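REVIEWER CHECKLIST
Item 1: Sequence provided? yes
Item 2: Single chain? yes
Item 3: Sequence as submitted:
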Amino acid sequence: MICLSDEASTTPAGQVLREIFSARSSIARIMAFEAALARAQARRGLIPQAAADDIAEKAHLAFFPQDEWERQRARLGHPLVAILEAWMTGLAPESREWLHYGATTADLFNTVLILQLQEAGHRLVDQLLDIEKCLAKLAAEYRDTPMVARTLGRHALPFTFGMKVATWLAEHGRSIERLQVWLQKYRSGILSGAVGTYAAFGDQGPAIEREVMAELGLAPPEPVDWKGSRDRFAEFGCAVALAARTCGHIAQEIFLLSGDDLDEVREANGAVGSSTMPHKANPTFCIDVVSRSREVSARLQPLLEWILVVYDRDSSQHGDALRDMCVGMGDLLANLRSLLAVLVVLPENMQANLHRTKGMILSEAMAFALARRVGKHTAHVQMQRLTRAARERGCSLEEAALSDDSFRSLLTEVPDLLEVAKYTGQAPQIADAAVEWVRQRR
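Item 4: Structure as written out by the authors:
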């Protein structure tokens, strides 16, 4: 069932997406479907041409009586029949007999839902592509800005902020591709009757279906009726849910890096942080994106449940689940875009945090330099001994090494061995490659 109710949204992007699924938008598409069907049937002599002309001429919201529709909804309880009964009041008496001839409600609602998801999906892709540009710019700007990489909550090795953003960029790019693949794959509706046999149309059914899909701007129909197969909607939900989770991943990392204990980035949103603590400046956009990423992805479960239908079809689907997922995703993406617009990067604080473990993050660099003399295993064991000694003494790795005969000569031989900027590996080049990949693919 498609959506026939309207609610508010928090961003202009979400409002546009909600309008795609609004009652008026749905009814307008229903009328367009019926007009295309009537024209195709009239060309084949299945219904009178005059009836088709009347239906097509009045397939606009200006001819749809809102009050009558609401009255019929209360009386009938069937969403499509109420729409058709209300619309019929404005048609010529002889035309009413031929409206919705041979089609079933599921044909119409599924086709309208595909039209809506195509429009909504392309709008979401546009938002995703805009965010991708922001991430690519950020990765390029900070390609060689050193910071500490953290694994399991601990300082690991130095890399660059540009490389960190590059990982976001690559993951986000996969989100774009998954949604684009869905939009390319599922571009057709259905018009095959109650159980998909075209029985009411006779031999002309497949041709009528092809013509109606073409007139609606959709791709040719699939070989087999899919009204009883809901996997395509679950697949759409999976693509959106994964994209939402990636957005949450990005915002969560920014949230953690912006905490007072790290202070490597800041969300300069200008928002009031607390009603009682004047010093607070909360990461409002981060919180919103992380929260919405959970809410959007949680809406996937009902779409998965749709797949279990009773026999050849039941009425388990409700378009508001897809509507709410799309609207929530539109709001989420708008807020992530706002977050990136006010993100402040603090290289000086990243530099300070690189030294919080007193050089321990360069233990691997020293171990591999030593390995060239004594072998990797022996070097690893000796470095464990050295780092343990440094912790026990409360001194830096360099101080511990200079007081150890095994390492003093190594530092003399390689004087820049404990310079953080010398051990970021290919991080700047990886950031460059990620940005170039986006430039070439888009």
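Item 5: Key structural point noted by reviewer: Strands lie at 146-151, 154-160, 265-267, 343-345.
Item 6: Recommendation: ____
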